[in-house]
Structures are given as structure tokens and as C-alpha cells.
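cache lookup: miss for this entity combination. No prior model stored, computing from scratch. Input as submitted by user K.M.:
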Amino acid sequence: DAGVIQSPRHEVTEMGQEVTLRCKPISGHNSLFWYRQTMMRGLELLIYFNNNVPIDDSGMPEDRFSAKMPNASFSTLKIQPSEPRDSAVYFCASSRDYNTDTQYFGPGTRLTVL
Amino acid sequence: GQSLEQPSEVTAVEGAIVQINCTYQTSGFYGLSWYQQHDGGAPTFLSYNALDGLEETGRFSSFLSRSDSYGYLLLQELQMKDSASYFCALSDDKIIFGKGTRLHILP
């Protein structure tokens, strides 16, 4: 298995631009998670899906952030408009079950907003 | 609510044993996990404790005591490649990660 796939690996954009991060979970995994990691705040759970349905989006910082999972093999995290404070590494992870199983992380997307 | 506390940094010597502690406050949970993250990399799963006691996986062991609201990760025969950050994570209705412990290993 190729593991969790994220794209792009690096993104540099200017403030105000729309950013879309993509994730392909491991085949057969029912749960998908989006995390943000910064030095100051550590690893934060933004949102997670179970069977393509958003279960908890309480970690999404603002309305500028949105996430979708149109099917079992694809998810997006969108930031519109982006701000410099959104600069972070964004990880996608998947697992067979959302609360008792190992999470497998993708390589992450390093986002820099200028 | 849930919160996990772990030391921000720990230093140990190559070949030695080190213990990284994790204390938590929660009303109930499924289990406690440990993840390793090297600089520039993604977190990777190390160990999971659903029940009290010790789980051993090679050089790494993890322990959980629900009555003491406490767990730890034990790394034996430390190698330089073990230099990384280690996160404990609590599984309830979702997974909450601690802030991470950066392990420095001296030759």
C-alpha cells in the first residue's frame, strides 16, 4: 500500500489567496483526519470524517477553513482567504476506526503564506 | 474536557534507558497511544495501551495506569536515531495529542 498521500508537499502563497490541500487515505480505512502542526500550538486536530461524513469540526479555526470528503478515497482542506498565521504543516491521517485504531499519517503539506 | 501533560524535553545517553511520562485528565477513554516524529517527518505509531499494564514492542515499551491517570513510554538501548519528538495521544470520541516530548540523545 502506498500509504496516505498528500499534495502538494510544499505550498507558498500570498495572503488572500485560496489554498487547497489534498489527501488520499489508505484504501479500506473508514476515518480521515486533518491536523495542523506549529511550534507554538503543537499538533491540532482540525476535523475528522467517518465514512465520508464530518463528525467533529470543532478544531477548525475559522470560517475561512473548510473540508470535504466527496468519496472514500479523497479529501480536501481549503483555506480561503489565506493569512500568514495559517502557515504551518498540515497533516492528513487515516485509520480503520476513528477512536480505537492506529492513525497513519501522510507526509504533510508545508504551507507558507506570505 | 481532556488534557495531556508531558515534559517538553528529555536528554539521555546513547545505550541508556529513558522514560517519557504522560499524565492526563479525562473522564474516560478507550486507550493511550504513543507516536514518534522525526524532524521534518510525519508522526508514526509506536504503541497502544487499551488496558492497564505494560506493552512491549522490541526496544520500546508503553505502560498505562488508569487509576493513576498516568502512562509512560520506555525506550531501551537508546540509539542516535531515536532522537525525535514523542507524543502521547488519548482515544476518546476522537484522538487528542499531547504537546510532545523532544528526546535528545548524547553520544
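stored under new cache key. Chain B has a mean pLDDT of 92.
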